Automatic annotation (TrEMBL):
Residues 5-119 form the TipAS antibiotic-recognition domain. Signal peptide: none annotated. The lineage of its organism: Bacteria, Bacillati, Actinomycetota, Actinomycetes, Streptosporangiales. InterPro entries: TipA-like_antibiotic-bd, TipAS_dom. Residues 1-24 are annotated as: Disordered. This is TipAS antibiotic-recognition domain-containing protein.
Length: 124
């Protein structure tokens, strides 16, 4: 899968175990694997966006369950995403405007909502 941010990601995380694991796993993925991975990710985002639009709090059981599903999706497809790593990702989703813009394509404000759900989920 073509990634325009591959060099930046390698520079930031290239020395970590998570990076090595992600590189090992994704090297074997074919087109169907990527299609399934992206479909699952999109489905989680769509469900989170629906909750957000309907006014369900990011701290609700439904939203935190989806945040956990998001964490497990990363663990399943890329690397073991611990709650600590997931919190860091949530912060990055709102701190880096590129992540925010990508996540907010599903619904404006979704990056912040996801971050809040992650923080609530990992606080337990």
């Amino acid at each position: 899968m073509d990634n325009p941010y591959a060099d930046e990601a390698a520079e930031r995380w290239g020395g970590t175990d998570a990076w090595a694991e992600s590189q090992r796993r994704t090297a074997s993925y074919g087109e169907e694997d990527w299609r399934r991975c992206m479909a699952e990710s999109g489905e989680i985002s769509a469900r989170l966006a629906a909750l957000m639009r309907s006014g369900v709090a990011a701290s609700s059981r439904e939203a935190t369950d989806l945040a956990e599903e998001h964490r497990l999706h990363i663990s399943r497809w890329f690397y073991e995403c611990t709650p600590e790593i997931h919190r860091g990702l949530g912060e990055m989703y709102v701190a880096d405007p590129r992540f925010t813009a990508t996540i907010d394509e599903a619904a404006p404000g979704l990056a912040e909502y996801l971050r809040a759900a992650i923080l609530s989920n990992t606080a337990h």
